[in-house]
Amino acid sequence: MVLDVEKAARWIHRLNGKIQEQKQYLTDLDQAIGDGDHGINLARGFQEAANAISANSYQDLGALCKDVAMTLIGKVGGASGPLYGTAFMKLSMAWKGQKEIDREALAKGFKDALEGLKMRGKAQPGDKTMIDVWEPAVAYMAGEGPLNGEELASVAKEKMEGTKELEAKKGRAAYLGKRSIGHIDPGAASSYLLFSTLAEVIGEGESA
Amino acid sequence: MKKLINNPDRVVEEMIEGMVAAYPNRIRRLPGTTVLVRKDAPVQGKVGLVSGGGSGHEPSHAGYLGKGMLDAAVCGEVFTSPTPDQVYEAIKAVDSGKGVLLIIKNYTGDIMNFEMAAEMAEAEGIKVAKVVVNDDVAVENSTYTTGRRGIAGTVFVHKIAGAMAERGASLEEVEAAAKKVIENVRSMGMALTPCIVPAAGKPGFELGEKEMEIGMGIHGEPGIEKTEIRPADEIAQTLTDKILDDLKLGEKDKVAVMINGLGGTPLMELYIINRKVAEILKGKNIEVHDTFVGNFMTSLEMAGCSVTLLKLDEQLTELLDAESDAIAFKR
């Protein structure tokens, strides 16, 4: 078992914690090459998502992810709302009715989520977006070899930092063209938080 | 900033309440949402028309609620796309079983949020079609942008698709009529002053005392060039030329013209612009079937205007002329 409802709840709370902590950093990244609301929007949305799942007890990973999705959809706004909302919606569909999942199901869910993100945002790797972290992270999850939390986090981190030298082809940053080079993409940064907190939780034992 | 508001964070909420108070027999609000609908929605036997986007462009889009035009208008925060759950509520509220057409302006946020709402509605068994309006000829980077922006030409889409729907046409027919407008409509705007988003408290950019920006977007997005202000006739010429470059019109072709104020420009000036536009079209032997001058898709208090030309054929003419009884568009 790689993820169960209890670990998933822990993941969401851990992720929310990180987002609250790094709200200003995410906002600063978005000031540089966007409209300056990434940190604010995610902080609002993920706090609501964390509150929403605290209020319920879950037997079904799909249901937990769906509640996260619906909350993010309604509360984040901007482009991040539909994007992260779509990702969690796809996870919820892949894991419907399951209390716990193995590595294969984890990878499948995230592959579906990645496809959903590409369809929603129409970005490809290299466009300087969250996809630049998602695609390699999901490839690692779906790959051969053991699933090691630290490795997953390090792949995500490396790819996030890699967005710095890319020229934006999507989103508001694309209007800046070459001026977007030299800045880490905010969506890549928040995606790193998503994968690194997931990696942490996967690496941890059963509930404390 | 000097505005007629109370709390900058409540402008959309208070606007919605004020609109409902003004037109209680024409529109109602879906409780707990920022969606306004035709009072009689869902109208049986008719395709439902849903549009919307960021607030701050009034009368777009709630001003177009009514017979022969929109059934629902979704009001996002100022210059911010509404969330999918809001659009989803709008779709559900106006579907009478004949399906719903979403009229979406081409902005990344609008597209994502409306598309997501369409998927949510389709999962519930509602037939949803979508069209994307991209009439602004000012800015286009063929390789890397999401394409051209959607601006005042959207109002023609509302009118023509609305007329088609009002006669009981199918979802496919209404969608086709909307697409025909989109293929035949082009616009371009310019700004003399920036606007201030209430929650921001200061303008998003600067325009000097003697400066104007040609091709500026309705959220203050960059245009083609920032230059010294020129007389209205030259501005009208620039805007019209760029449109005519793109919308191939021949002699004896017929058009509808819209001279749209961005909110901060007096009607007097819009008529001065129209004088020149009319002269240019006459000189090219292009027949003007009808002209619309006023504030149709604004940008808060931005001073400036946009010109829109819609190339007409028999069907589009008939639908444009058809009766409508929307708050801000009555024929």
UniProtKB/TrEMBL annotation, chain A:
Chemical reaction(s) catalysed: dihydroxyacetone + phosphoenolpyruvate = dihydroxyacetone phosphate + pyruvate
Keywords: Glycerol metabolism, Kinase, Pyruvate, Transferase
Biological process, per Gene Ontology: glycerol catabolic process
InterPro entries: DhaK_L_YcgS (IPR012737), DhaL_dom (IPR004007), DhaL_dom_sf (IPR036117), Dihydroxyacetone_Kinase (IPR050861)
Known pathway: Polyol metabolism; glycerol degradation
Quaternary context: Homodimer. The dihydroxyacetone kinase complex is composed of a homodimer of DhaM, a homodimer of DhaK and the subunit DhaL.
Cellular-component GO terms for this entry: cytosol
Role, per record: ADP-binding subunit of the dihydroxyacetone kinase, which is responsible for the phosphoenolpyruvate (PEP)-dependent phosphorylation of dihydroxyacetone. DhaL-ADP is converted to DhaL-ATP via a phosphoryl group transfer from DhaM and transmits it to dihydroxyacetone binds to DhaK.
Domain DhaL: 6-200
Source taxonomy: Bacteria, Bacillati, Bacillota, Bacilli, Bacillales
Protein name: phosphoenolpyruvate--glycerone phosphotransferase
Gene3D superfamilies (alphabetical): 1.25.40.340
Enzyme Commission number(s) from the entry: 2.7.1.121
